[in-house]
Batch of 3 targets.
Target 1
Amino acid sequence: MTRGAYVMNLGPTPYREAWELQRALAAAVSQGTLPDTVVLLEHPPVVTLGRRTEASELHIPEDAEVEIVETDRGGKSTYHGPGQLVCYPIFDLTRHGQDVKKYCRDLEEALIRTLAPFGLAATRIEGLTGIWMAASLATPPGGRTGFARAAASTRPVGRTTLRALAPARRVAPPRKIASIGIHISRWISTHGYALNVDLDPSPFTDWITACGIEDAQFTTVAGELGRSVEVDEVRPHAQTALAEVFDLDFDELPSSAADHLRRQLLHDRSTQRAAVSK
């Protein structure tokens, strides 16, 4: 059954501000004052640390112009920046199966469908979260070959490396194009996915050991297509894919609801500042 839902299309938004917005939306969805709501935006440069991040993953230069934020999402470290489409689904998962693994797989499916209109055959890799470009190494429908077969049969010691999982034959390594990291409290989801549209992917490897995978390679929609791609070109496909996968019918969040959320956020900030100053 298709349910009504809201979408918020925002421009560049500081990470902490977007996190506050997610919390406000999560409270409204939990209380039933808002239906499922999706936020689509970009972030200024920021490295976010998931609950499983290790200090050894971080090698950010002292002069790097990037914010570092510890978060409550799962997973390890990742990078966000302009040219990346970030999607925060604030969903009541009691309407979507109450199954965390299924929810992650559904987000992956939405990403795969988002990329399909661009002629990109993105895929999952068994044992790893997120979406990859790896035509000869990926898990094909109905079977496992190449990299996926090796991944299923090999357990590397210590940190995950793609070399440890790769087949003996020389093949190009898989390239990660989208990452997923979520938080669920009382079956309300926050955080979500980040799709690399058109940005320099070097911070994923030069500044951090992204996703805890030492030798991972990262790619972008623009890099795969060989042309520049605007984030706004991808947004409609992301919204359509989420609607299909989660059986939702999206409308833009009404301005009255958005204004109420802004007032609530301003009130919360004022309350926090007053508490600190006491």
Target 2
Amino acid sequence: MKVRIIVSGVFLFYLVSLPVFPQTSLFDRQMQVGFEEKQGQYADLDVKLVNENGDTVLLRDVIDKPTILNLAYFQCPGTCSPLMWGISKFIDKVDLELGNDYKVITVSFDPRESFILGREKKASYLSAMTRKEEAAKNWSFFVSDSADIARLTSSVGFHFEPFNNQFIHPTGLIALAADGKIIRYLQGIEFLPFDIKITLVEAADGKIGPSINRLLAVCYSYDSKGNQFVFNITRVSAILITFFAILFFLFLTFRRIRLKSQGNK
């Protein structure tokens, strides 16, 4: 009996003294990824990127107009490829001119990937597009090193985690103004051309397209849960009420002036 007690005590002491190794589950890692929305803040424009020709450039030299930023990695087995197909679709369909009205840039957040792989990936998307020439010049693919990737992703609130030689990451696009200001996050893999247009109008501060686009930007607001623009009945109602109130006030004012002038006669 005493022997059993001694053996049990030694075994318990052994279990307690074992080092505790932290176990990070896939779920725990998933909880650490996502978009930290930073509207009104600025992307780090001093990060260095390597373009499809192997040239090193600064992000500030790439962004000179409203820009859709796509953070992905080229060998992603999950959502990155469908997301880039979604980009190719809205480029073909949106009634804005890529290159004149806006730009699209795709940056790999995997420092192991080469610019050659990026160039090959881009070619596969261009092959199925109708606006090939526009996209070839103004949808740019980049790679970078781990330090610059960390600076860029941190500045725009894109949080990802390595896992089993791949990455757990959010899926979506980030709209930037010409000065790098973060305007909007569009989450998902496919986007209505209308949503992209409204976002770019907002990014350009109403300078893109005819005046009707500015009205659309006023009448529609972004639903972050549904990841799309919805008709803002409250905003439109307030505008209409204010408009008719001003008209009614002007009507009463001019009517009073007219009645007074008739009474003086």
Target 3
Amino acid sequence: MAHSTSGHDDLGGRFTLAGTPLTLNRLGYGAMQLAGPGVFGPPRDPEEALAVLREAVAAGIDHIDTSDFYGPHVTNRIIRDALAPYPTGLTIVTKVGARRGEDASWIEALSTAELIAAVHDNLRHLGLDALDVVNLRLSSGHHHPVDGPVEEPLQALVELKRQGLVRHIGLSHVTAGQVAAARAITEIVCVQNQYNLAHREDDALIDALASDGIAYVPYFPLGGFTPLQSETLSAVASELEATPIQVALAWLLQRAPNILLIPGTSSVAHLRDNLQAGSLRIPPEQVARLDAIGSGPEARGSALPRNG
């Protein structure tokens, strides 16, 4: 298991994915920003990208979120170059269900053939024989999840799991109805959706998953590519002698015990700042003020892109 360092040694506490042997630090790392602008092409600074990953693991992060459509193929190759042979206890979570066009567009890729190819691409570029967790991403091209059938694409992953190429299955960019439908087909260990201080549509889903021990992993926990703009957030951060980003992450960790975080960055300095959120405790009075962000005018202060 990767070791921890002082200053953020609990990394948000621990959570065990239901029905698995995987017990993870709740503060992880998302690799999306290691690719070039628009999550397309190579990184601006390849050496810094390698350094970020090595620093993350050295600091105690034990789960990394990635996908072969980041780049495409870029982040997975960087992860392999930086960390292989992988340390014991490192869990890599990847994602299938989309592909990239030559113009950097995000295109749905949910046919059985496309999903099989995507799993093999992830295996090859990460240098693995099996993938720890694969999230099936639905509703590509839509800003919010859209209800639709899950059985056909999910059965493709179930078959790959039977073959031993996939160990566990999760979902991404899905509705509560799709989560229920998927759970009737196979065991789901995590759900990855948009959620943060200003975007609270999944409150009920988070609580339902928590009762069943299923992890909820918010993407764009900081509002996406545009940082959350909130006077309340800034004021609370000042009171706690922390940054707004650290407070936004700490709020998520306190929101529910099944929330796992995957904040991304291509900077070692920003990574170190993010890690401090793992040990930040927000008092109840400030939590109440932050909770109000999701229902007030501040909720309109962030813009989210159509990817993830």
